[in-house]
């Protein structure tokens, strides 16, 4: 029996990835406790999702702080007070300072709606459409001090169709996000992630079972 991982989840919006993680824990697919859900925006629907499941929530509006460092320091204190071991960014649309990242070394995960290192930054789905790629997807990675850059834990690919809109591609990618984010957190809960520079090795990984690929011909 492993000790459940203590998670702090940071959100800014709808919180469908948060929901997927809550569901995985409730199904007992993932051995973890969500200690606190923090939003930097008062209108984030994810806060209501968390409250519906009896989770502690906090609103920490970045507009109430005079600098990124001050905001991040409050966030670190809040997460430490709740006994958070691992920080999960689930649609959290704020850059984190070096100080925050150093407070949780190799213990901050992010999900990005593209196959990194392609299309980092904002509106990754639109970037993919504008570049005309035929395949895109989602990436779960550890956060380091560069944006959308740290070691990749898991990816899933989806086809991009000629008539896709930003919304249709986002929905196809989001369905994969909901699958791989809880699965990637589970690797940490099982102690299977070994970080080596800017890549990771997953203990007992046989044939990339976590990686989904839907070929365009198959759908
Ligand atoms: C997700 O698509 C996530 O990948 C993206 O925001 C969305 C949040 O959805 N994150 C980023 O673009 C971060 N660079 P959710 O609030 O429904 O989980």
Question: Tell me, what's the shape?
Answer: globular
- Tally of strands: 10
Q: Which residues sit in consecutive blocks of at least 5 with pLDDT less than 50?
A: 214-219
Helix content: 25-40%
> End-to-end span in angstroms?
40 Å
The CATH topology of the largest domain is given as: Rossmann fold
Number of helices: 6
CATH architecture of the largest domain: 3-Layer(aba) Sandwich
Q: What small molecules are bound in this structure?
A: glycinamide ribonucleotide
| Mean pLDDT figure | 93
Q: Tell me the strand order in the biggest sheet.
A: 3-2-1-4-5-6-7-10
Give the SSE order as H and E letters. Answer: EHEHEHEHEHEEHEEE
């Amino acid at each position: 029996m492993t000790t459940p991982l203590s998670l702090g989840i940071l959100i800014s919006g709808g919180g469908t990835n948060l929901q997927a993680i809550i569901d995985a824990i409730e199904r007992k697919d993932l051995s973890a406790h969500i200690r606190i859900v923090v939003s930097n925006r008062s209108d984030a629907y994810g806060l209501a999702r968390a409250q519906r499941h009896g989770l502690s929530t906090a609103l920490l509006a970045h507009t109430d702080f005079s600098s990124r460092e001050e905001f991040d320091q409050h966030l670190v204190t809040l997460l430490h007070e709740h006994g958070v071991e691992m920080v999960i960014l689930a649609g959290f649309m704020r850059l984190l300072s070096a100080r925050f990242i150093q407070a949780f070394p190799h213990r901050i995960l992010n999900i990005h709606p593209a196959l990194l290192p392609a299309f980092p930054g904002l509106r990754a789905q639109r970037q993919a459409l504008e570049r005309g790629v035929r395949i895109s997807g989602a990436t779960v990675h550890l956060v380091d001090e560069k944006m959308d850059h740290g070691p990749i834990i898991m990816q899933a690919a989806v086809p991009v169709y000629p008539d896709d809109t930003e919304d249709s591609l986002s929905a196809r990618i989001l369905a994969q996000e909901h699958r791989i984010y809880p699965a990637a957190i589970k690797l940490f809960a099982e102690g299977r992630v070994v970080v080596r520079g800017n890549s990771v090795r997953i203990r007992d990984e046989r044939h990339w079972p976590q990686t989904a690929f839907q070929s365009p011909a198959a759908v």
